[in-house]
Amino acid sequence: MELFSYFNLQTLFIFVFTFLLVFHLLDRKKRPPGPFCLPIVGYLPFINKEAPYQTLLKLKEKYGNIFAIQMGFVPTLVISDPYLIKRLFLMEAFCGRAPLYLTFGIMQGYGLICSEGQIWRDHRKFVAHVLRNLGKYKTASGRNLIEEVIINGVDDFVMDLRHNTGQPVNITPYLRHSIGNIVNELVFGVTYKMEDETWVYLQHLLDEGFKHVAVAGPLNFLPFLRHLPKFKKTMKFILEGKQKTHIHYEEILQSIDSDKHEYRNVAEAYMIELEKKRGNVGTFTKQQIYHVLADLFGAGTDTAMTTIKWILLYMTKYPDKQERIQEELDSVVGRNNDVQMGDLAKLRYLEAFTMEVQRINNILPLGVPHSCTEDRIVEGYYVKKGTMILPFLWAMNLDPNLWKDPENFRPERFLDEYNNIIKPEFFMPFQTGRRVCLGEDIGKLTISFFVAAVLQNFNVTLKDDYDLNENAEYGFTLVPRYYELIPTCR
Fold first, then answer.
1. What is the C-alpha separation between 397 and 267, in angstroms, rounded?
2. What family is this (predicted)?
3. How far apart are CA 236 and CA 222, in angstroms?
4. Partners of 388 in the β-ladder
5. Do 367 and 431 touch, CB atoms closer than 8 A?
6. Alpha-carbon gap, residue 265 to 181, rounded angstroms
7. For the chain, what percent of residues have pLDDT higher than 90?
8. pLDDT at 301
9. 433: buried, middle or exposed (CB in 10 Å: 19+, 13-18, 0-12)?
10. Domain spans, the chain
11. Nearest CA-CA partner of 282 in 272, 273, 291
12. How far apart, in whole angstroms, are the C-alpha atoms of residue 181 and residue 24?
C-alpha cells in the first residue's frame, strides 16, 4: 500500500511537471523582462518595505522603462515611460482598479478610488459636476465658495502659527485641522473645533489608516495573511473605522434637507440627487455614497497636507529661494493685503518652487495603481487581464533623459527666459488620463494659498537639521519625517 502511494505521488509529480513544461514551451507570448520571482510570494520578500520605490528604481535601471514582477498573487507591470503611461491611461482597457485586497476585499469596489466600470463612471461624472458648480457659487464676500472656504482655513492656520511665533512647533496637527475642515465643509457642510472628540477620532483614522493601506503592503497581495495575528489587528482597525465613519456619515446625511434645490457641499448634492431618483437609485446606493465621501475626505486632506509639509521643509533648506518668493509676494500682493485668487497666476516663482518639490519628492512615488481589464499587447509585450499597472512617477521625475541634472533642486527649470511657467508633458503630479485627480484644481488652490500666506507673514526655519537624502515615511503617501518649524514674524 505504501509502495502504491509512493508511485502515485511520483506519477502525479511527473505529470504536473510535464504539463507545466509543455505549457511553458507552447506559450509563445512575449513577456516583459523582469527579475526572478518566488512561488506564491513573488518578489515581495526582496522589496524594501520602508522605500519600495528605491527597490523598483534599481530594477528599472536593470530592465528598462517597462518590466514585470509578481507581487504575491498579483502580476504587475511597472512603467517608467511617461508618454506610454499617458497613452495607456486614456484607454478604457487600462482604467480598471488594481486587484488589491484593499480595493475589492475591504472597500468591495465602492467609492471613487477603488471602483471601476459603470459605478466609477457615474460617480466621477457626478462629483466633477458638483465641484464645478461649487466653484461657480458666489458668496457674500464676492469670492466663489471654494476660494472662501480655503481662505478661512488658511486664516486659521496662520493664527495658529502666530501663537507659536519664535518657537519650534510641530505644524502637522494645525495643518491637518485647517485643511481637514476645508474638506469637511466642501464635502459634508460641517466643521469641527480642534478638540471635538469625533474630529479627533476621524483624524486618528486618517493618520493610521493610510499607514495600513500602503500600495506595497503584503496584505494587498496575499489576502490569506489577514488570518495571522499581526494582520488581524490591522483588519480590525480598518473595518471598525470604516463602520464607525459610515455611521457618522449617515447622521450627517439624515440632517440634510433633501427638498432644497441648491447644494453647498457634496453630501447635500447626493441627498438632492437621491430625492430625484426616488426608488430608482441605480449605482447611487448608500454604501457607494459613504465610500465616495470617505475618499474625498481622505485623499483631499492627506495629499494637500503632505505636499505643504514638503514645501515648507524645502523653504527652510533653501533660504535664498524663500526670500525670492517673499520678494515676489511683496511685489504682487503687498505686505498688508490678503492673497487673492487673481494673484496666484502672477506668483510664478512660488509656482515653480512648488512644482520642483512635487518633482523631486513626489508624494505618490508609485502613482495610483491601475489594472488591465482585458488581455492586451503593450510595446510588443503580452499583458494579461488583471495585471496591475504601476505608473512609476518616482523614476520618471529623476530620469536624466527627461530632466537636466534631476538630482538637483532647481525651481528655475520650470521657468522660461520670460519668467513664464513651463509645464512639461512628462510631469504629472496629479496623475494623468481618465482617472486624473478629481480634486486637482482645489488641491492646487489649497497648496498655493497656504504657502503664500505663510511666507507673506513669516520667515521659516528648522529647529534641528534635516537630511533630505534620508528616506521619508512611506504609507499611502510619502511623508516627511518629523520636524519642527520655527515661524518668525516678518
1. 37
2. Belongs to the cytochrome P450 family.
3. 17
4. 76, 371
5. yes
6. 13
7. 78
8. 94
9. middle
10. 31-489
11. 273
12. 56
pTM for this entry? 0.92
Torsion angle (degrees, nearest 10) of CA 55, 233, 246, 290: 30
Q: pLDDT digits over 410-462, tens only? A: 999 999 999 999 999 999 999 999 999 999 999 999 999 999 999 999 999 99
Backbone angles phi and psi of 61, in degrees to 5: -65, -30
Which residues are CB-contacts of 306 (< 8 A; sequence separation ≥ 6)?
363, 477, 478, 479, 480
How many other CB atoms are there within 10 angstroms of residue 383's CB atom? 24
Strand 74-79 to strand 388-391: parallel, antiparallel, or no bridges (unpaired)?
parallel
CA distance 467 to 87: 37
Please state the length of the chain: 490
- 437 assigned binding-site residue: yes
Nearby residues of 196 by Cβ (< 8 Å), 6 or more positions away: none
**Exposure of 63 in the CB half-sphere (CA atoms within 13 A):** 20
Residue range 40-83, pLDDT digits in tens: 999 999 999 889 999 999 999 999 999 999 999 999 999 999 99
Look at the alpha carbons of 299, 302, 305, 311 in this order and tell me if their dihedral is positive or negative.
Answer: negative
* pLDDT of 8: 59
**Burial classification of residue 117, based on how many CB atoms lie within 10 Å of its CB (0-12 exposed, 13-18 middle, 19 or more buried):** middle
Are the C-beta atoms of residues 56 and 366 closer than 8 Å to each other? yes
SS3 459: strand
User: What average pLDDT does the structure give for the chain?
Assistant: 91
| Cβ neighbours around 64 below 10 Å, total | 12
Which amino acid appears at position 450 of this protein? F
pLDDT digits 0-9 by tens, 392-416: 999 999 999 999 999 999 999 999 9
CA torsion 42-46-49-52 (nearest 10°) is -90
The domain 31-489 is classified under which CATH number: 3.30.56.10, 3.10.290.10, 3.40.50.720, 1.10.630.10? 1.10.630.10
Enter the C-alpha cell of residue 138: 458666489
Among 403, 392, 469, smallest CA distance to 63 is for: 392
Query: Over the Cα atoms of the chain, what is R_g?
Result: 25
The answer to whether the CB of 275 falls within 8 A of the CB of 266 is no
**How distant, in Å, are the alpha carbons of 326, 389, 458 from that of 349?**
10, 34, 17
Whether the per-residue pLDDT at 306 is higher than 50: the answer is: yes
